[in-house]
Amino acid sequence: MGRMERKKNTNFHALMNLLDEPDEAVFLKIKEEILQHGHRILPYVQEVYDNSFESILRRRSKEIIDGIHFDLLLDDFKRWDKGSQSIEEAIILLSKIHDFEFQKEDMMSRFAVLYTDVWRELNDHLTALEKTKIINHIVFEVHHYGVYSYRDAPEEQYFVPHNLAYKRATEISICAIYLWIAEKLDLPLKAVVLPQKLILAYLSPDMHYDMNMTTKNRILFYTNPADRGAVFTRKEVYMYLEMNKITKKSSYFEPISNREFVKYYLNIIKDIENPKYKMMADEIERVLSDD
Predict the structure, then answer these.
(1) Where along the chain do its domains lie?
(2) 140 alpha-carbon distance from chain centroid
């Protein structure tokens, strides 16, 4: 161990010895300094948490651990936003809002079973509608998924790892699972946001070559994973808007980007009756809003 490394370790230990500072204002300054060291100091704080019996040390060390994890999560969202913006990576990051120490291996293996069952049934000769019906069949008939209303859903069911483990989801999370399957299969499914409803659009493969196509021609049909994958047309979207006395907007028919989908997901998370989710979602949304 080099001299600089030993000095750093000494400084970290010294900061840990200040965690029981009785003056709260002074402690906040100490906490701020600890947080600036990020992941490098995390093992030292974790050691305090694991080996302390005093409530003040456990509370403060847990707050710092969560603060460091959240800062790391914000950095991951920044990288995602500037990188691939894949649905798979978005689901992994969103899962960490529920559990900072979430490990993806179990989720990935459960998803692999679902995805593989769909993949085995698909071939290039099937129509877009037939492919969608196969996804619906595998998800709801073979794997017996169910969908909660937001009102009845426990908070963990807003997050895909729990959905895959217990085969129960909410509207937002079952759409995320469908988008993930589509991404892995290179199927052109994209989210569409309606008032009080999230649906998916199956895009024409031709849109990759002609971005001047009208929305009407770009979208083959819509599907609603929260309604067991029911398939419907643009006309039925119009009927939904008229029935609910909603003024028509072009955005109600347009697919959104993965970035916009994540921002929509964050808005749903804010509605969970837990203030920590709103705080985290607001911060992540700010990161995604920065140019």
Answers:
(1) 3-82, 87-289
(2) 22
